[in-house]
Amino acid sequence: MSDAPYGEGRRWVEVRPAGSPTSLTLVTWFPSMPAGSLQGLVIDTPDVRGAYTELMSRGVHFAHEPRKEPWGTFTTFTDPDGNGFVLAQAAPRQES
After folding, report:
1. pTM
2. In the chain, how long is the greatest CA-to-CA distance?
3. How far apart are CA 49 and CA 62, in angstroms?
4. Which residue, 3, 24, 49, 86, shows the most beta carbons closer than 10 Å to its own?
5. pLDDT-derived band of residue 56, with 50, 70 and 90 as boundaries?
6. Which residue ranges form the domains of the chain, and what is each CATH number?
7. Do the bridges between strand 24-26 and strand 11-15 make them parallel or antiparallel, or are there none, so unpaired?
């Protein structure tokens, strides 16, 4: 589990079943994205910039260059059918 602050009064909570590579992210602070309205996949990678460069060379069109946020670095793209994807690299974890 990861529970990180994300701006004023916001949190980014990520839960992962034990032993699973899949996780769920829980947020409630996107007024433009009410619960259940966001559909797509987040692809976790250890190197967003490298993956971005490789996929661009293969013809993938991204909405923007990788952006750094408090929780990590990301960029977005859609496939030819309009499905949305987020290519993400988590920020290094801080030990407490």
Report:
1. 0.65
2. 43
3. 12
4. 86
5. very high
6. 2-90 (3.30.720.110)
7. antiparallel
